[in-house]
Design goal:
By secondary structure, the chain is an alpha+beta fold. The chain has one domain. Strands 1-2-3 form a 3-stranded mixed sheet. Strand 1, helix 2 and strand 2 form a beta-alpha-beta unit.
Length: 83
Amino acid sequence: TIAVGCVKELISQGIRIPDDIAVTGFDDSYMAETIIPEITTVAQSYHEISAEAIRCLDLIIQGKSNIGRKIIIPHTLIERETT
């Protein structure tokens, strides 16, 4: 992930994480837990995203308008060692 690459480069440059800079990733990749320090990340529910996508497709198939509909899917901040 990009966050993993950032952490590796920052460490190689002698920058202390999280003392000098905080790093946050997105998607809660398994790599976020395997690197030291473990990366703080935002997790999202792929199950809920998929279910909402299916609901949207169903509306389109039924000929119902889906334009302008705002969809909010909850996410979770997983705090680890980089913040």
